[in-house]
Amino acid sequence: RAQVHLMFVVALYCVILVLIAVADASVIHLVLTSAGYTYGPLLGLFGFGLFTHRAVRDKLVPVVCIAAPAATVGIVQFFKRVVKYEMGLSLWIVCSVLTAIGLAAISMPLRYPPAAESVLEAHNVVEMKLLGSDDEQGPTADTSEAQATQLEAEETL
Question: What are 47-104's pLDDT values in tens digits?
Fold first, then answer.
């Protein structure tokens, strides 16, 4: 256990030395910038799921989540070289918006979320029972045995 701990300390020390030698910015800024590329898609996924009721094509979500940071790198470099503007930590916003746009492009609208449909149906059945609707009067003399069993099952909802 002590050897593993020592190896991680040495590895982390080497990473810090490489970052100091390569990067001209502070290590904290470098860490936050790299976190922007990784957490930007997560923020976009969270916002898309929170504010929309759309079904995404699951197999294309990883493609969008990889393409959004790649496009963000291009946008950051464009602003840096052409517009002479350093984006800084606002790349989180750019990356999350690109992810949300990509998810919107690969999604389709839902009428209700899947769980809500069964809840809505159960609510309607209970409401009809409480209001004494004429549609659900129970089995009558001309009702078959299967229909009576089905009505009893619906009453338990």
Answer: 998 888 888 888 899 999 999 999 999 998 898 898 888 887 888 899 999 999 999 9
Residues contacting 136, CB < 8 A, separation 6+: 125, 128, 129, 151, 154
DSSP string, the chain: -HHHHHHHHHHHHHHHHHHHHH-SS-HHHHHHHHHHHHHHHHHHHHHHHHH--EEE-GGGHHHHHHHHHHHHHHHHHHIIIII----GGGHHHHHHHHHHHHHHHTEEE-SS-HHHHHHHHHHHHHHHHHHT-TT-----TTS-HHHHHHHHHHHT-
Contact assessment for residue 79 and residue 87, using Cβ atoms and an 8 Å cutoff: yes
Name residues whose C-beta falls within 8 Å of residue 98's C-beta, 6 or more positions apart in sequence.
40, 44, 67, 68, 71, 72
Tokens of 131: 């209001």
